Amino acid sequence: MPPTPHQGHVVVAPDKFKGTLEGAEVAARIAAGIRRAAPGTEVRELPVADGGEGTLAAALAAGFDRVPAKVAGPTGLPVDAALAVRGDTAVVELAQASGLARLPGGRTAPLAAGSYGVGQLIGRAVSMGAKRIVLGLGGSACTDGGAGMVQALGVSLRDADDVELPPGGAALRRLERIELGPLADLLTGVEVVVACDVDNPLLGPRGATAVYGPQKGADGDDLVVLEEGLTRFADQVAAVTGRDVRQAPGAGAAGGVGFAALALLGATMRPGIELLLELLGFDEAVRGARLVVTGEGCLDAQTLHGKAPAGVAAAAARAGVRVAAVAGRLELSEPEWRAAGFTAAIALTDLAEQPGDSMTRAGELAEVAGEQLAGALLPV
Question: Measured between alpha carbons, how far is residue 210 from residues 38, 169, 216 in Å?
Fold first, then answer.
């Protein structure tokens, strides 16, 4: 039975507020406000993520161990990254190695950026004995179909002159032969699960290039080149594996890294927030709670389609626990957020005294939001 309103703890489980606060910071600030307004209330902080940026931080906050690793960034220059490990499970966040934030000077490289570092992180996890690898996709700087990722794991991609292809989606147009090498042996007994919240195929008008290429700096001519490269890669992968997954939902995720994970790593795909909540032990954390507080930078129409707060709200509802939301901005109407399962919703923009305060004073305002929610929803 769910607890009565005067019993139970509070779970604070927000995603990051992109550009202002990491998920753990949001959770700590909201929790501080709740404790101030409702002294003696047990508050458990459990920052979440939907499989994109912030996945690693959420795993670490949930008790996974941080394992540092120096890997190739999207342009090949070394970057300091990390993975999270607990027991025989490892969490790999693509953005750690091949994210837009890893581009030197923030300069995009749509044709040459690659995913080699992601493969290096997976290889590191396997070498440490991981039997289950959770691969979080999102924030990718590359459109290489995951070619770099599998090259880092021993796959050889060769042109007509028997020369290994350089990084980047443009080079895939020259692909003539794929040698899988030690890949199958490397991943024997290893389960790869992709946390993904998009259902785009690899190619076409909803594919990796058309939808996400412009976000990575690709213009009209670049888009043609990248689509040709991904098409060539998909044809060659189908020829060598006997399976064609280019149309599979999620194959277009992260510049096509989803495609290579499905086709060559034997991965399965699951909705990001669903997988992360399971990984973080959300069901256990919410058992016996009287309130869950979640949130993200902007609560909008996208939130309702697989984003972290909607996933948290659904999981809390299954446990019979009320859910409130704190957001930097609130673009849903009250009927919309109530229909999504939220008992209350507070936007930092509504608490701000000056325009821009919701960004520059996000932490302080998140505490105020926590206080207000506690005052309204946690009667003493």
Answer: 50, 13, 11
260 half-sphere exposure, CB direction, 13 A CA radius: 31
3-state SS class at 147: helix
CA angle 273, 370, 7 (to 5 degrees): 85
Q: Which residues contact 156 (CB under 8 A, 6 or more apart)?
A: 164, 177, 178, 179, 181
| Gap between the Cα atoms of 217 and 112, Å rounded | 11
Q: What is the mean pLDDT of residues 189-210?
A: 96
* Residues 376, 325 contacting (CB under 8 angstroms): no
Residue 298, pLDDT > 70, answer yes
In this structure, are residues 208 and 283 in contact, taking their beta carbons and an 8 Å threshold? no
pLDDT higher than threshold 80 for residue 162: yes
Q: Which residues are bridge partners to 268 per DSSP?
A: 193
Helices (H), 40-158: 55-61, 94-98, 116-127, 147-152
When pLDDT is averaged across residues 233-237 and rounded to a whole number, the result is 98
Q: Is-contact 295 26, C-beta < 8 A?
A: yes
Alpha carbon distance 189, 191 (integer Å): 7
Tell me which residue has tokens 């999270």.
84
106: DSSP letter: G
Written as one string, the DSSP assignment of 169-231 is: SGGGGG--EEE-TTHHHHTTT-EEEEEE-----SSSTTSIIIIIGGGGT--HHHHHHHHHHHH
Residue 51: predicted pLDDT: 87
Residue 5 has pLDDT above 60, yes or no: no
Closest alpha carbon to 53 in 91, 108, 86: 91
319: left (phi over 0), alpha (psi -120 to 50) or beta: alpha
pTM: 0.92
